[in-house]
Design goal:
The chain is an alpha/beta fold and about 325 residues long. The protein has 9 helices and 15 strands. The structure holds adenosine-5'-triphosphate. Pfam families: ParA (PF10609).
Length: about 325
């Protein structure tokens, strides 16, 4: 006898049916919802429910949605101290990874100064389903920031469990089909960083430093923290390395040069590259236009960094 549920094969999402059965008027469907965000899973379920209910002989519909576990690579971006350009690097690394074809999410976990809404130029607020946050979309990536959860300019004086709880909510949000999650950590090596690393187990860490000794000493502390927690350090990025005067074109090194590369060799971690101190990077970032989006030399610098980060992830086997 023909299977009455074969009618379902004409649905646009028929390829997701893993099994179907009709017994005593009860239609039971197993449907693969891999890669779908919560809202899309609901749409899929409703589509099958509606179609199956209309089939002669079906009195009740039971649908089980399954999803194969998707591995999401988590890259933590840290620094030993504030103001070295960690958030700028995290935002543009995420944009460059998205430009290279990856599906990317960005978590702004910087409790002390969540700046990603400014860097990405949007003050959109995330929605939530059953207390699970839905990331906001900007410049080809999804992102969530602690800055979206408090009113603008409100200093976050969160400490300990409160900060950790809020950060967990961001990491455990509905990231849908994102393959890579870039996490912009707070600067330093305190308890918030420690518990976030413990909870989210990054696949690798990128450390941002400026070239001068003081910044590098702090960067070394951040590297020690990741190593102690068994998180592979993918490498150091030297930011604000070298300045080309936009008027006369002469190069200078206000913070020194080559310090991070030498330190990386000494500590035994890869050197991922350097970004110049550039008025173009600062002004585009302040205006909410990530410089990695363009096609100038700044964008190229971020594209190269993203490629080296991917290579480093492969080297550490993640
Ligand atoms: N390569 C660069 N050239 C010019 N300006 C830069 C560069 N990198 C960052 N900046 C600027 O430096 C300032 C600090 O950058 P950013 O907020 O990314 O630092 P941070 O390390 O994340 O600081 P914190 O963790 O304290 O928030 C910003 O105004 C940013 O635009």
């Amino acid at each position: 006898m023909a299977d009455p549920l074969a009618e379902l094969d004409t649905l646009p999402d028929a390829g997701r049916i893993r099994s179907r059965r009709l017994n005593d008027g009860v239609a039971t469907l197993i449907v693969d919802a891999t890669g779908l965000a919560d809202a899309d899973r609901k749409v899929l379920e409703a589509e099958f429910h509606h179609a199956a209910s209309g089939i002669a002989g079906v009195e009740e519909v039971r649908i089980a949605l399954t999803a194969s576990q998707q591995h999401r690579t988590l890259i933590a971006v840290g620094s030993g101290k504030g103001g070295v350009g960690k958030s700028t690097v995290a935002a543009n690394l995420a944009v460059a990874l998205a430009k290279s074809g990856k599906k990317v999410g960005l978590v702004d976990a910087d409790v002390y100064g969540p700046s990603q809404p400014t860097l990405l130029g949007t003050d959109a607020k995330p929605t939530a389903d059953n207390d699970r946050l839905n990331p906001v979309e900007a410049h080809g990536l999804k992102f969530l920031s602690l800055g979206q959860l408090v009113s603008p300019g409100h200093a976050l004086a969160w400490r300990g469990p409160m900060a950790t709880g809020a950060l967990a909510k961001l990491v455990e949000a509905d990231w849908g089909d994102a393959e890579v999650l870039v996490v912009d950590l707070p600067p330093g090596t305190g308890d918030v960083q420690l518990s976030l690393i413990q909870k989210s187990r990054p696949d690798g860490a990128v450390i941002v430093s400026t070239p001068q000794d003081l910044s590098l000493i702090d960067a070394t502390r951040a590297i020690d923290l990741f190593r102690k927690m068994d998180v592979p350090v993918l490498g150091i990025i030297e930011n604000m390395a070298g300045y080309i005067c936009p008027h006369c074109g002469e190069g200078s090194d206000p913070f020194g040069s080559g310090g991070a590369e030498a330190a990386a060799a000494q500590i035994g971690v890869p050197f991922l590259g350097r970004l110049p101190l550039s008025a173009a990077i600062r002004s585009a970032s302040d205006a909410g236009n990530p410089p990695a989006l363009g096609d100038g030399p700044e964008a190229k610098a971020f594209t190269d960094l993203a490629a080296r980060v991917i290579d480093a992830l492969e080297t550490v086997g993640r």
